[in-house]
Amino acid sequence: MSIDKSGFIERHGLWTDEQKRLADELVHRVEKEGIRNIRIGWGDQHGIVRGKTITIDEFKSSLRNGKDFQLMPAIVDMTNHPIFPPFSADNALGIPEIIGLGDGVLIPDPSTFKVLPWVKNTGWILSDAYFSNGKPCTLSTRGVLRDQLSKLSAEGYGMTVGLEFEFYVFRMIDPKLDPRDSGFPPAPPEVGMISHGYQYLNENRGDEVEGIMTLLQDNLEKLGLPLATIEDEWGPGQCEVTFHPLDALKAADAALLFKSAVKQLCRRNGLHASFMAKPKIEGVFPSGWHMHQSLTKNGRNAFVEEGDGPGPLSAVGMSYLAGLLEHAPGTSLLTTPTINGYKRQRPDGFAPTKAAWAHENRGAMLRVIGAPGDGGSRIENRIGEPTANPYLYIASQLIAGRAGINTNASPGDPVRAAYLSDRPALPGSLMEAVEAFKRDETLKAELGPQFHNYMVLLKEFEVNRFLSAVTDWEQNEYFEMY
Question: With bands split at pLDDT 50, 70 and 90, how would you rate the model's confidence at 199?
Fold first, then answer.
């Protein structure tokens, strides 16, 4: 069966020739394998998959015409509160296409298709969001990363990313499904531990969670995700999963699928997985997302020092490193995008507080790995939190790194005592990160003023909701004595 080329996708030229070829193959595949339903998903601004489950006939139609999709999720915070009045005659974003919340269109990317091993006869595919007039949705974060990769390619480079996620798995005691626990947001579930903690890389501790790790590994590998390690981490029930290196866009897509898959698999098996950086549970240790990154040129690692330079990276790698340092305050909004993420920071706590680099030092924000001649030379950014939107996290690194390369910047000397070093402090709260993001003119220029303003509005809305909420601390501090 051949794809009808007269539909929305062809009319607006939204696919490459390779995507058209893959779409033709995909129609044959779903018919041959007896796939009954397809989950067509879109990665929103929070790094959460939104979408619809559609039948095979509807999916075939979507490969010609796209799938109509309400773009309301693009203007809400994590609890579905709109960040501005959605039905006014104008909006704070200056985007006429979303006035009145008309439908957008999801255009599936055939290269992302997977069969979900835990759901009978069900496929999964990522999509890009467009307005009904065929213009790309300017709030789509996958589009932001694709734009940065296009600029990088024009400069002669590609990007390789290694993913390293920490997260928690708990026993589900009470999912809190009573109507009184529903709301904006609903009550969090009541959970228990799956193991003891604080015996780092202890074989016996790892064996306690072997069944859960095997459950995750079996299903993640069936999805084609290139797992490298899957293991018990530091805290009780804390897990770490690392991936083999991937091209940047594939890495971001994989991160989105990975987090969604882990949560679904755990929930189906009486467990609760959380990528929250520091859950409010006694005895837990904060979780991070460490991103390994390097640039490629002509198929080779461009960060390798292959001459007689001082190293540890090539001149391009050192300038890229300098850019990451210079723009670390502004990019914090994209690497650490939640109120909770900044509560990882504490002295000698594996979460950096200074914009500093070091060679093979896990206390620094940027850990340089490798040496002259080492084909695995790369930079590990240790600032990220696991909730970060993968497209924005990776894009932020490209914006900063490219800026460093284009100005031939120098990162200065490495540090030895990262937490005590005389280096600029990183934002210590989401409030500080928003202000740093506002001031960074390079980020504004690269993201475009519309998307830059969008992120400010989104995160200021979150901050204001947090500041207006009465916390347990305030109740305990003031209620009785005053």
Answer: confident
- Give the residue carrying structure tokens 């991937």: 246
Partners of 160 in beta bridges: 247, 294
Contacts of 367 (CB under 8 A, 6+ apart): 357, 358, 359, 360, 361, 379, 380, 382
- Residue 101: exposure state from Cβ atoms within 10 A (0-12, 13-18, ≥19): middle
- Pick from 166, 404, 382: nearest CA to 273: 166
For residue range 285-335, list pLDDT tens digits in order: 999 999 999 999 999 999 999 888 888 999 999 999 999 999 999 999 999
pLDDT at 205: 78
Q: Please, what are the domains in the chain?
A: 8-137 (3.10.20.70), 149-474 (3.30.590.10)
DSSP category for residue 340: G
Helix (H) or strand (E) holding 30: helix 17-33
Burial 407-434 (b: 16+ CB within 10 A, else e): eebebeebbeebbebebeebbebbbbbb
CB 427 within 8 A of CB 437: no
Residue 468 three-state SS = helix
Which residues are paired to 294 by β-bridges?
Answer: 160
| CA angle (291 as vertex; 227, 78 as ends), nearest 5 | 95
Q: Tens digits of per-residue pLDDT, 88-108?
A: 767 888 888 888 888 899 999
Mean predicted confidence (pLDDT) in 270-278: 97
**Residues 47-72: b if buried by 16+ CB within 10 A, e if exposed:** bbbbbbebebeebbebbbbbbebebe
Residue entry with tokens 């709301």: 183
Has residue 5 got a pLDDT over 70?
no
Residue 1 above 60 pLDDT?
A: no
